[in-house]
Sequence to fold (186 residues):
Amino acid sequence: MSERGKLTVYTGPMYADKTTHLIEHAKAAGEQGIVFKPSLDDRYGGGDFVRSHNNESHQAILFDAKKPGEILRIVAQHPEISQAIIDEIQFCASDILTVLEKILVMGLNVIVAGLDLDSEKNWFGSMEEIIAKADEVVNLTATCDGCGGDATYTYSKVPKKGVVAVGAADLYGAACKNCYGGLSKS
Fold:
């Protein structure tokens, strides 16, 4: 039986370079890693690439966030890999927790990135449970749009309808605790 894999989570607000860290892992893994991205993430032209806010990119396999079991099926078809790398994991249905556990038991390392909180400062999707199960959590910060300090929150620049509204600088910004209330339009 293989040794259990390690779950690493990169989290923080928008513009905290979470995807940049995933791209670095993907490049280091080479053919030993597969990158996944929810198909609903159509920012920066969409397509089968993960893209950072500073326009770095890496090829990815698209999957339906409502059916994260697709990730497990693809991983099982590639016994040569040692890493599964998943961007925007906060969009996944709750059965992502079971998928992650099964991949880890297979002995693969899993590196994920996602917003920990939504723009209302509530846990986003299954992120609370994913973080609780992680072997390593990297909490990243962005630059606050208000004061230039460390931002730990994402705020909505426009009134929203629902939790999931995929967008970039047109819809969201980063704020520190002190500036959040004055910047958020939620």
Summary: The chain has one domain: 7-141. The chain is about 20% helix and 25% strand. The mean pLDDT is 89.
